[in-house]
Amino acid sequence: MFTAAGELTTxxxxxxxxxxQLGVDRVHIYMHWADMAPDPKSPHRPAFDATDPGxxxxxxxxxxxxxxxxxxxxxxxxxxxxxxxxxxxxxGAGAPDPSTQTFWKPSASQFGQWVEAAAKRYSGHFTPPGDxxxxxxxxxxxxxxxxxxxxxxxxQSLQHSTVDVSTMMYRQLVDAGWSALQRTGHGHDTxxxxxxxxxxxxxxxxxxxxxxxxxxxFLRGLYCxxxxxxxxxxxxxxxxxxxxxxxxxxxxxxxxxxxxxxxxVANHPYSQGLPPDQTTPNEPDFTELAATGKLxxxxxxxxxxxxxxKRLPIWxxxxxxxxxxxxxxxxxxSPGLAAYYINWAEYLTWLDPRQASFDQYQLHDGAAGIxxxxxxxxxxxxxxxxxxxxxxxFLPVTTTRPRHPLVVWGCVRPxxxxxxxxxxxxxxxxxxxPASGGGFTTVQRVPLTGPHGxxxxxxxxxxxxxxxxxxxxxxxxxVFSRTQAITLQKS
Length: 491
Fold this sequence. Notes:
Blueprint: E1 2-3, H1 7-10, H2 12-22, E2 26-32, H3 33-36, H4 58-73, E3 77-83, H5 108-121, E4 140-143, H6 165-183, E5 190-196, H7 215-222, H8 234-239, H9 246-255, H10 257-261, E6 264-267, H11 292-304, E7 314-316, H12 335-351, E8 360-361, H13 384-390, E9 393-394, E10 399-400, E11 406-411, H14 415-422, E12 427-434, E13 441-447, E14 454-459, E15 465-472, E16 478-480, E17 484-488
Parallel strand pairs: 1-2, 1-8, 2-3, 3-4, 4-5, 5-6, 6-7, 10-17
Antiparallel strand pairs: 9-11, 11-14, 12-13, 12-15, 15-16, 15-17
Helix pairs in contact: 5-6, 6-7, 12-13
């Protein structure tokens, strides 16, 4: 999966072509509510049928139509995330500064009507005025984005951060979005909830109205469970529209089917500059990549509270490492280290059968150099992460004794798509270069038989040196992975 953010809507064809060349099979796109809505800056709702895709300005749909058609033409899947900001007229009252806080108490009913309009437009049966054929059907959706972050959904908490109202609001948004997808014929689609930001405030005054809430705390509140893993009761439960009795708890899954019947939970497991196998110290409620096991066990506990033994898959729908240059925020790494980390992260994801995807966020760095997780610089120059993403390489152990094999794990991401056009068996070369010098030579050719281009083999190397992967596009250029140093200890 790949999240290309605004590039997809400003240059759909060019961005999709670039992602296809990288071997991307599914694109995660953010469809912003306010971009579609009529009079989005007005505090007064215009008179229109919000469930009718024809009631929205055609210009708002146009870039998304291009992406939907373009992805279908290239054989690529989509994950359409229906995300904020809401239009001003769908906000709740009482925002501290209505001119800047556009995520304040969004109306769940209005959100559901917009989801219904999007679902109808991308049902496979809707032909826009002036077109001669219907738009392709979308079968993969995410509901909202990072609802545990105050700049996406506010307020997060009230009463000195003791009442986590964002969890109640998001539950209502999921209810409305889920119902809209069900009644428009998308009930058998892939529908994700969560889209969680991986970190949040857990000390001091807590998340307050506009700070971030730690994601596992947010999940517990979403499912009306306290920090002790027991159902909330009493005044807090009542205020958050949670069950206050055992009888109400028994009806909770039926009242909120999206929380229990979703296809999975989407997470943004950014490691905040840490190696992908490390968690943030003293933060047990974060969901960075190394904490995925805790996310899984927490979800299982929450569902078991209501008698469900479903194990919701985890979907990574945003991930990457910020690099310096050009980014100088906390949690950045060098471009070379970031390339190594994203390969390591993908290997760890591959090891966990419950993780359904691995995502890369951004193709290009932004021009301002903020959150620079791209594979290309803002001017289009490849960073080390470009080769690392296209052809991941990871050796879990890089030091061994002579005549002892090392495990070589990797992926040739473009190979499955290339095989579709060439009809020739695809192989990847494992190449070795001695530490003493000389060129790379092929030591093993590995058949690529899986649907996604992954492989894991064992290889004996003749000495210390460097390892890389080599692969050639059918009738095209030869490309290489990043290079990994290995050491053979003396006997």
